[in-house]
Amino acid sequence: MASDTNKNRQCLKKLLSKPGNGNCADCGAADPEWASYTLGVFVCQNCSALHRNIAQVSKVKSILLDPWSKFEVEFMDSMGNNAAKAKYEQIVPAFYHQPTHKDCMLLRDQWIRAKYERKEFVSVERQEPYSAGYKEGFLWKRGRDNGQYLSRKFILSEREGVLKYFNKHDAREPKAIMKINTVNATFQPEKIGTANALQITYLKDNSTRNIFVYHEDGKEMVDWFNAIRAARFHYLQVAFPGALTSDLLPKLTRNYIKEGYMEKTGPKHTEGFKKRWFTMDDRRLMYFKDPLDAYARGEVFIGGKENSYTVLAGLPPNIQGFHWQFGITIVTPDRKFLFTCEIEEDQKNWIAAFRTVINRPMLPQEYAVEAYFKHKP
Fold it and tell me: pTM for this one?
């Protein structure tokens, strides 16, 4: 009996070397050590936990620790990740965000449920909630001034090119109109403090406005996220008619390059350093008094090295008023920005983030944004 168990396990391990099986079927993480013996897919440990949430569809075992029958191994051999992908991912819309192991658990959970439980990608009709070009519903929105979450009606209209919300359920005029061409959405469960939390940003008078929303139903929140991506995709297809889909997809939504606390001083470098929450969003470095503020206290444009932007470890000599010891100097064509980090690791990570941006050549449209920053009052 023991020899049969070992034999089955060895056969199972060999299956991992077949094309497609060496990465998690759902998030792409390398070297999966679990498998669903009802779906025939190899998955990582994190995704295996999510498969347990749909036990009526998927039953998982450890490849290394659990006993496997010959029948189960034969089924895994007959299916495998590539065959399952062909079966369950037949028509995934181009704009639909397919999560990786770096994404939050909500996105991964809903991706798994969409594939295997709801079978959304074998029938276009099942994609109606995010593919229709119009979506409306109620989300809990954080109040700008009091921080309370209140139910607000949201409408996304691809035809009008806007996302808008209303302060009262029977209101005729929206409280805010967000143009799709500047809208971004990113899940922020840790920052906002609830699993289904989405941070939506848009430009208002060329300044970034933050809106924080959530819904009790994880599917509803992910549907909103993908509906925003769909609207952005179709806007970009019209705006850039010759562009390849592969070039447009990274522009649909974006996560922030880095966020966290640093201390900063003012333009004269004589003011005391103050602790602020910083967000690096593409080339905009924004700072807030509180991470959930609606508006930034200030925004700095970070250009490319060919335009005289550089980042240096440490502070210029004779600078005073800082509490944290690990300094960063960002040099722009007009001035130097000085920051300090609490620990050396934070300093290194921020410098790496800044260099990622500075080492990237500026796009033509980014010169217009830089010019705005230089001339704004």
Answer: 0.93
Backbone angles phi, psi at 86, to 5 degrees: -65, -30
Spatial CA neighbour of 311 closest among 336, 284, 288:
336
Q: What residues have CB less than 8 Å from 231, skipping those under 6 apart?
A: 133, 156, 158, 161, 163, 180, 183
Among residues 61, 70, 56, the alpha carbon closest in space to that of 41 is found at 61
Map residue 236 onto helix, strand or coil. helix
56: Cα separation from own chain's centroid? 29
pLDDT in tens, 293-325: 999 999 999 999 999 999 999 999 988 888 999
Whether the predicted pLDDT of 139 surpasses 60:
yes
The answer to whether the beta carbons of residues 243 and 252 sit under 8 Å apart is no
Q: What is the pLDDT of residues 225-239, one digit of tens each?
A: 999 999 999 999 999
Listed residue (224, 192, 190) closest to 105, CA to CA = 190
Q: Which two tokens stand for residue 212?
A: 């924080």
Percent of the chain with pLDDT over 70: 98
User: What is 25-79 written as a DSSP string?
Assistant: TTT--BS--EEETTTTEEE-HHHHHHHGGGTTT--EEETTTS---HHHHHHHHHS
